[in-house]
Hints:
Blueprint (H helix, E strand, L loop, with lengths): L4 E4 L3 H13 L6 E4 L6 H5 L4 E3 L13 E4 L6 H4 L11 E4 L6 H8 L5 E5 L9 E7 L5 H11 L3 E5 L6 H9 L1 H18 L4 H21 L4 H8 L5 H9 L5 H19 L1
Helix pairs in contact: 6-11, 7-8
Amino acid sequence: MSETLLLIGCGKMGTALLAGWIAQGLAPTNAYVVEADTTQHERIGALGVHVVAGPEALPHGLAPATIVLAVKPQSMDTVVPAYAGPAATALTISIAAGKSIAYYEKLLGESRAIVRVMPNTPAAVGRGMSVCVANARTSDAQKEKTSKLMTAVGDVAWIDDESLMDAVTAVSGSGPAYAFLLVECMAKAGEAVGLAPDLAMRLARQTVIGSGELMARASEDAAILRKNVTSPGGTTEAALKVLMADPGMQDLMTHAIAAATKRGRELG
Length: 268
């Protein structure tokens, strides 16, 4: 955290990361941010970091140890080439979905240490899940640095096979949407048995929020926690007999994850 870090793009995810790094001990004066939207500069600058509108405004000779690419995937073609020359030895971390390591090696050079990361939106509240994969040029120390940077916004896991990133995206990258849909479905089901819409939504929302926090604090896995709530012959068991029927919720989720994985491969 004593090295110079360059963040390219400071939207919601970039801001969450930056705030997390500063909380971890990164000196704001060691952080440089390139954000094209100048209307966001006051907000970003309030964190005490250096912020500029483009790479041409960075200090001459700036040699960051780490560059984090946090712009939208569709912007990478025009953004990334500007960082091919400077900081050739920098660890480059990308959190953009769908862009392969080979893509960055083509733009930055095969000698660059590159880590591709798939975070998810709960990173904005420090509860994210980030999965990383590195190229052959990335050292163990650089992998450890990446883990430390990403734990600022949640949990971190590593894979060796980049092709698994499509499955990762299907499970954790897209996963928050499945949890939000669960809340919607529970609320609508509550309405169907007579609850007022606002109360049904409140019950469903808080139940999922509380269950997530309970799981975060518990040492038991999800299956044990489920069994702990299920009394033989009770109401929970009656509902689970429907959800766990064959076909049931598992089949539906398996098909959904498979569809998301397939679409990720098509986009890649």
